[in-house]
Amino acid sequence: MSVSEALPGAPDPWAASEMPQWRDGPPYLMTEMIAAEPALAERLARRLASDPMLAEVASAVRAAADSGAAITLTGCGTSEHAAMAGAEILNAALVVSGLPPVARAVQALESLRRPQPDGLLIAVSHEGGTEATIEAMRGAAGAGARVALITVSRRSPAAAHASLVIETAEQDRSWCHTVGYLSPVVAVGAVAALVADDALDAVALRGLLDAADQPLVAEEVAAGLLPCGRLIVAGFGIDYVTARELALKIEEGARLPAVAHQLETVRHGHLAAADPRTGLLLVWSDAEQPAPTVQGRLLGLLEAARSLGMPAGAILDVANGPRVPRALTPAGRLSIPSTRRMQRAAEALAGAAIPLQQLTERLSRARGVNPDTLAREDPRQAAAGG
Length: 386
Prior knowledge:
alpha/beta, single chain, five-stranded parallel sheet, globular
């Protein structure tokens, strides 16, 4: 069930968030953040439509692509995955515009190896205080690139290092970030729509996210995966972005070891360590209409899981669901909805956000774990946390 109340923004003066208040059971703060996302995304899309900064960033994207310069999106953790999603969304828009798809995503610390000397760096940092991301921004600016930032508040430390700042305005209250992932995906979706001489449809976005709400199905899939001691998450193309974010969410929220791999990578050695206590999750959206060879590999991975006795589940677009026999997903499947009123890449990535988040939240419940704190109530985890 979605909720319509706006979330508070960052503190004024800016301050890093403190560990979320402990709750002994659901609803967790993560539960509430997921419920807030449909209305929040609609508000953000409407607000950005009248924000002059959106046009400035879109113009910077076009100028970089037109000159053949690099467009790099960067971040850490969930923000890195939002940056990966953003690169896919921007490239799709650039192709529509007849421009080269030059956007790429690079992890923030990795970007320091070769700071880009021109073009545009778009940093993603939900609260705007991540040290490695700030260093990536400094490095790019020092080398000659233009720097933009997507963050909750332009009062954040990172904003001081950007000439262009898109504010998302509403701050995630759980440290197992959900709003912190979806908000920059929506923001880049709005930029990309403008790059393609279009506008992000706020009503369609709200409808997409409302349709993605599947808590009972997520609970069933979580139950199917509960016996597992670890999970493998696989995706092809843009779905690897969703797979990466899902694996991170499961590890930090449900505290269950999980790793994301490219679809074909799984079949090249990683199954040697798999057994019936190893679960598999496959992500396949309508944005990826693969050649028969790729579709065969998608189904072949599920067949391999069945032969090893691995509990397997999936997050599937409604168009791809019928292509996957139910017998190959004994742990169940969640759906990625579609409205056909948004750019396909943006719709697939935004539409998968709530299913992956609800699966994590229900898996956390099943395991008796509070997903909000990232285990930082344990002093050892607090000391180890980045």
